[in-house]
User: What shape does this take?
Amino acid sequence: MFSGKTEELIRRLKRAEIARLKVEIYKPATDTRYDESAVVSHNYNSIEATPVTHSSAILLLKADTQVVGIDEAQFFDDELPEVCNKLANKGVRVIIAGLDMDFSGKPFGPVPALMAIAELVTKVNAVCVRCGSPAMYSFRRVSSEAKILLGEKESYEPRCRACFHAKD
Ligand SMILES: [Zn+2]
Assistant: This one.
């Protein structure tokens, strides 16, 4: 979540817009940390997005949409991979950003299934705050077993595999 996923999503979508492609962007309605209707990254680069409560709502997009961007895919329901397949099979380019692992290091929501069906997967790593190695894990600094805990800067820190398992 400090890895630049959203920045990378925004960068790719802005390039599609420069190429005059019709772009639609969606995010889960549960993610309202910064703004109701924009995908906002940690460095406040932003792009307009439609909040949806269920992935099936993405299929209601405008008929001439050529590129679909989806942010925070890990918070979507399990139908998201099927929705993305339907779009991609129609020729829509689907670009998705999401966390692949939750705070316990387990695959997160529909993201593993999305990675399996994607033509291309880019893993962008944060930097471990303890040792500076590439960080794949989100270490939860507060004690809670809830799978979803919003408000990331205070609650999580990026860690490498070794520091994640050090648990201190
Ligand atoms: Zn480390």
Observations:
- The longest strand covers residues 23-28.
- Residues 19 and 49 are 19 Å apart (CA to CA).
- DSSP finds five helices and ten strands in the chain.
- The radius of gyration is 16 Å.
